[in-house]
Every structure is written in structure tokens, then in C-alpha cells.
Write a structure and sequence with these properties.
144 residues; elongated; 4-stranded antiparallel β-sheet; alpha+beta
Length: 144
């Protein structure tokens, strides 16, 4: 797929009421999911490879409760915990954050996507390190 095609698909998804879009061409598949769709149902939106079999079903309610106190990655990419090398991180454990505050940036396809706090909370733990590749739905921060 060409970058122009991908950008067109991203724009089409953003302009539509769809929560996700999947496109396949020449053996490659691109799956786009709106961040709001991931926030609404993080357990249901995990990639199929990450889902557990029926034996894991009783654990899902506990996972959903835990996910409410976590910030999940909205997409696959490389996480950056600071605005630029040598600068202080966006947030640190023990820091209070406001709704809408930038927590980190995820770089995907040379695009930088800000990850913002959904609500006011206190950062309990940073669960990733800067420069680490993260999957969509992977916990990034835990809140108290």
C-alpha cells in the first residue's frame, strides 16, 4: 500500500461514523480503529491474536475494571514519554494530571499521535519505556 492510500483511508474513517475500517490489498491488511472506539470497549477491541480462548472469559470482568484505571495505547507504534530527547517526561509517577493532558506520544508511520488523559487522576505507574514498541490496547499508564 502506498502512503497516499493509507492517508485517504485514515481521512475516510475520520469523516465517517464508523468505529473501525479494515482494508486488504496484495496480501497486506490495514486495520484502523478510532481512539474513541478503543476507549469505549478496550477488551472487545484487542487484536484477535491477543484474545484468549473461552477459558479466559471469567477474567474479563476483572480486566475491564482494571482497564478503567489504565491508559491504553490507541494504536500500534513507538511510544515517546518526553517531547524531545533530553527534555523532562510529559508525566511521572505520583503526578496529578488533568483531563485532556498529554501523557505521551505514539509514533506510527512517521505521524506523532498524542495520548491524552481521559479524566483527572494521579499517575501511579508508567508501564512502558520511551522508544518501546507498543500494541493497540496495551496498557501505558496506571492511575490511582
Amino acid at each position: 500500500m502506498k502512503q497516499e492510500q493509507i492517508k485517504t483511508l485514515i481521512d475516510a474513517l475520520a469523516a465517517s461514523d464508523l468505529a473501525e475500517l479494515e482494508y486488504s490489498e496484495d496480501g497486506s491488511t490495514l486495520r484502523l480503529v478510532k481512539q474513541s472506539a478503543l476507549a469505549a470497549a478496550p477488551a472487545a477491541r484487542r487484536p484477535a491474536a491477543a484474545r484468549k480462548g473461552p477459558a479466559a472469559m471469567p477474567a474479563e470482568p476483572a480486566r475491564s475494571a482494571a482497564a478503567a484505571a489504565e491508559c491504553l495505547a490507541p494504536l500500534y507504534g513507538v511510544v515517546h514519554l518526553q517531547p524531545a530527547p533530553g527534555e523532562p517526561p510529559f508525566v511521572q509517577p505520583g503526578q496529578a494530571v488533568e483531563a485532556g493532558q498529554v501523557l505521551c506520544v505514539i509514533e506510527a508511520m512517521k505521524m506523532f499521535n498524542e495520548v491524552r488523559a481521559d479524566a483527572a487522576a494521579t499517575v501511579q505507574a508508567v508501564l512502558v519505556r520511551s522508544g518501546q514498541e507498543v500494541d493497540a490496547g496495551q496498557p501505558l499508564f496506571r492511575f490511582a
